[in-house]
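Lesson 9: reading folded outputs for more than one chain in a single document. The general rule is that every protein is listed as its sequence immediately followed by its structure tokens, and records are never interleaved. Here is the first one.
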Amino acid sequence: MTACLALTPYDSEPWEAGGDPTFRKSLEGVTAPDIHNRVHTWIGGNMNLASAPNDPVFWLHHCNIDRLWAQWQQEHPKLTYQPQSGGPPGQNSDDLMPPWSSVRVSAVLNHRSLGYVYDTENPTAQGDRMRPGDTLRGGDSIGSGDGRYRLVYETDGNLVLYRDGERTPRWSSGTQRRSPGMCVMQMDGDLTIDDADGQRVWSLGTDGRGNRLRLTDEGTLEVSGLSGEIAWRSAHEVMA
């Protein structure tokens, strides 16, 4: 698996077979080490037939294949899914995924946006939001899309929302004077802060698997669920 995870790019022409080794071809089984196909053949029975989903091992196996895909993305953050276009029908980024009539390939490329992470992950939050499992460590931050606001997990342990050019925070967790550990958007939907000793020092108190935090261009923090419903929103006013 180490050799497979080291391969780049994700895939390349010819898409079906042949050509240089790629991560997808190695993971699928077009080329060695044949991680996906080999397991089906080794187990046999239903696993070697179109009825493979009848075997409970099928689901364990495919969860692991998905985990390896997530690990490859984490190890190669600048690389993207291929083919974006010009590949077989149903495989291009904007193609519909049969038999579903409304789900496109691009909608399932980021597993964290679907509301889950693997316990081998500890990704740093990027852009204007914290997805399930996303983490901020001392000095890390996310920014609004227009760049005017920034949420910073400061090195004194406080989580603070600032507007560019202002020194008075718009919102704060009030956890200053604590050694910084990690601020995490938890899988159960809560935003929490643990200190350097791993002790829980603060939680937002939100609930809902798949929740994510977003810093809006209006300077507010919003926690919303997979449906888009707002579970919590910070005040817009500058703190006294």
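And here is the second record, again sequence then tokens.
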Amino acid sequence: MRASWDKAGEEPEEPGREHLANAAIEAIRQANQTGDWVGLRKQWPPAHQPFIHLLQENHADDELSLDLSMEHGTLSKDGHLIAVGAQNSCHLVFDAQLNLISEIGPHSEYPHYALFSADGRMVAFNACHFYNGTTIGILTDALKGMKTDFYEEDNRIAQLEDGARVYAGVSHQDEFIVGDASGYIRAFSIAGDFRWQLFIGSAISSMDLSSDGKTLVVSTYAGFLSIIQLGAGTPAPN
């Protein structure tokens, strides 16, 4: 998957099927109101069920092109906000009723990752270009109705980190900890202040944090698993 992301190529054309997404959201909204989940599942089956033939029957005039790259999403801890994105989108935020409330232009080329702060007061968005990237942060109270263009400066947007193409991340207290394509783990505050970094040696694939916030577990695409005791200090040289 990473190899296909890193290949340069022509910009894909817009699919021109936005009405399908709107139809799906409206169907879910109606099911929430009526409780008719059986009807919803028949019209819009789960992703694990074959549905190409249903699209062909119900939308015969639409050209089917199910190409989505760098898709990602995260849910706020209270379940009230959903942050998503993909290579050809802005950073998007939906509320619990699946209403689109924010469209944030990335500060690098392609949206790549999203993460809420531990207290839910901020959402961080990463966008990338090749192995580099930029992470911005926005207070969740400012999200409703917010719409900005690519690279647009806005006083509601804070630059948190410049340089990392983020593949994984966690948040603890007032700190974001992210893992990037170059094999670094980087920590910075919700204000964008650098805290620390650690070189693991291969692109980070995932990470998780213990419930007490003291142990960070990190895996890499090279197949290594690292267990890091946070707050233990820098080991003394031998």
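What the second record shows: The radius of gyration is 20 Å.
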